[in-house]
Design brief:
The complex is a heterodimer of chains A (119) and B (416).
Chain A (H helix, E strand, L loop, with lengths): L1 E8 L10 H19 L3 E6 L7 E6 L2 E6 L8 E9 L3 H8 L9 E6 L8
Antiparallel strand pairs in A: 1-5, 1-6, 2-5, 3-4
Chain B lengths: L5 H30 L2 H22 L5 H19 L4 H15 L10 H8 L6 H11 L5 H7 L4 H18 L8 H25 L7 H15 L4 H15 L24 H15 L6 H12 L7 H14 L3 H13 L3 H10 L1 H4 L3 H13 L3 H14 L3 H12 L11
Helix pairs in contact in B: 1-2, 1-3, 1-5, 2-3, 3-4, 6-8, 6-9, 7-8, 9-10, 9-11, 10-11, 11-12, 11-13, 12-13, 13-14, 14-15, 15-16, 15-18, 16-18, 18-19, 19-20
The chains are: A alpha+beta (119), B mainly alpha (416).
Chain lengths: 119, 416
């Protein structure tokens, strides 16, 4: 099954660039990437630029509305994601626990829709 | 073989009832483990039961009724899966089923109920859903029976159970016994669910037709039988047995609930008490301490003769705090400290917990008791009233009213 691991965190609680905590976090991400690649489960994964770079768009009454900022005004924002192919939820949770942001943010684990590629 | 006819039709439905009562959980567990879908497992087992009525009526009872049901349910599942769009999951399930279906129906049915229990008690499900799902699939309660226990509308409980089953299938919650790395955490969720079933029954009182205290006892004995020699499982079994032993004594003749120290010991069940103590001793001898063993030891000390062993209880709560540093455990530890002879210190801890527990009725009851112990009658009266107002059962309210009425009148100030 494919799962998306969505990385949510509060930028204010994230370690600052240049601190030993930041280096430890980057080492943690590197180790998580290596482990997912070595186990053959990693399909893709990206980090996102900060919410200050986000632009939101929607159609209302047939007209496009474009706004500065993210979809939801919350303290924790989507900061990146992985897509992995794991046998079950327990395996997916084990990989989610490798993501360093789990220590100060939250990782949401969601199965991908199965559009039945074999049909 | 029974001859066909109306008499045999009755015999057939009676036998089917018996097999479904005795083996439903086992059959469901085997089917769910291959299908990875609890709803589908229930549906095909139900269809197999319907076929059984016809087939057994015509051709007589099979030698292995449970094995027959399992084979037919597997065939029904294969038919269903072949009819649906294939994805990787149904492909895998079909492969598994085809292999199992080729085996003889006379083969012993493997006991996969531990896998089923771990799926139903998965932390990815809400705690209340874990309880409902475990009662439904492992203990075989009906949805109306479970709804009654929770005082829920039947439709609401039905929705809760189907949502939980749908999440197991969609999120890929495995029907698997966790590995050593995750064993302690996941077992904790299973034992907590079992204990929640027990306390729900304990608070509700004996209920017909399904008494949740007995269901919890059945469940924990089943888990102990499926994974023998685990100290925490034994701890949970001991705790349930020791608490169940004093069930008949927990309400006094006047309808007020009684703490263990004030109960009529002649009403304690000597068999459960003895077995609970023996199981606890066996668990402790394994030298793998854990929260359920500590809680069982506390239950044991509360039943010490001639009175509860408060210093030991206080020490055990101190140990429990290392596993579960929660405000509720701190509250119980403070009460034990006070009862063990230091009410001033106990009260100070209780007062400090006010921010976290002011909505928690037992906090008000404990505070009232400790204010009374320290001789602060005036504030004890107010605290007792707060606790009575929040009491969730008549028996608890009555107990607190007794305490309130029994407070020593304030010594009249002497003059002259």
């Amino acid at each position: 099954m494919q799962y998306m691991l969505l990385i949510y965190n509060d930028p204010a609680r994230e370690p600052a660039y240049g601190t030993p905590e930041f280096d430890a976090m980057m080492d943690g991400y590197f180790a998580a990437n290596q482990r997912m690649k070595a186990d053959g489960v990693l399909r893709s994964g990206e980090g996102l630029q900060g919410v200050e770079t986000a632009t939101s768009l929607r159609f209302r009454s047939g007209k496009v509305e474009t706004m500065d900022g993210p979809f939801a005004e919350t303290r924790e924002h989507l900061g990146g994601y992985y897509i992995i192919d794991a046998p079950d939820l327990d395996a997916a949770l084990t990989y989610a626990a490798l993501i360093p942001s789990a220590h100060f943010g939250t990782i949401e684990v969601r199965p991908l829709m199965d559009y039945n590629p074999a049909a | 073989m029974t001859a066909p006819g109306p008499a045999s039709a009755i015999a057939v439905s009676r036998e089917l009832d018996r097999v479904m009562r005795a083996d439903r959980g086992r059959l469901l567990a085997v089917l769910a483990a291959s299908l990875r879908d609890l709803s589908l497992a229930e549906e095909v087992l139900q269809e197999a039961a319907v076929s059984a009525l016809g087939h057994w009526g015509r051709s007589g009872l099979p030698a292995q009724p449970a094995g027959w049901l399992l084979q037919v349910a597997r065939r029904k599942a294969i038919d269903r899966l072949r009819g649906t769009a294939r994805d990787s999951r149904t492909g895998k399930a079909l492969g598994l089923l085809a292999g199992e279906e080729a085996a003889s129906e006379h083969q012993a049915i493997p006991d996969e109920r531990l896998r089923l229990i771990f799926a139903c008690c998965h932390p990815a499900l809400e705690p209340k859903s874990r309880v409902a799902l475990t009662l439904r699939t492992v203990c075989g309660l009906t949805t109306p029976e479970i709804a009654r226990v929770f005082l829920d509308v039947e439709a609401t409980m039905g929705q809760r159970i189907s949502r939980a089953k749908a999440k197991i299938a969609a999120a890929g919650i495995p029907f698997a016994v966790p590995d050593a790395d995750h064993w302690a955490e996941r077992l904790g969720a299973v034992l907590t669910t079992t204990y929640l079933i027990f306390t729900t029954g304990y608070v509700a009182g004996p209920q017909e037709p399904r008494d949740l205290c007995l269901e919890a006892e059945y469940l924990i004995r089943l888990i102990d039988g499926l994974r023998p020699g685990d100290a925490e499982i034994e701890g949970a079994l001991a705790m349930i047995l020791l608490t169940a032993a004093r069930r008949a004594a927990r309400i006094g003749p006047d309808g007020a609930s009684l703490p263990p120290g004030e109960q009529d010991r002649r009403l304690w069940d000597p068999d459960r008490l003895a077995e609970g103590r023996a199981v606890l001793a066996r668990a402790v001898a394994r030298h793998q301490p854990g929260p359920f063993q500590i809680k069982a030891a506390i239950a044991d000390c509360q039943m010490a003769a001639p009175a509860p062993d408060w210093p030991q209880i206080a020490a055990l709560y101190g140990a429990l705090l290392r596993h579960e540093p929660t405000p509720v455990v701190r509250l119980n530890a403070a009460v034990a400290t006070a009862e063990a002879g230091d009410p001033v210190r106990g009260l100070a801890i209780v007062e400090a917990l006010g921010g976290a527990l002011s909505d928690y009725q037992p906090w008000h009851a404990a505070r009232a008791a400790l204010l009374a112990l320290t001789g602060d009658r005036e504030r004890a009266v107010i605290a007792y009233r707060e606790a009575i107002e929040r009491a969730s059962t008549v028996a608890d309210a009555l107990f607190l009213e007794r305490r309130l009425a029994g407070l020593d009148p304030r010594p009249a100030p002497r003059r002259g």
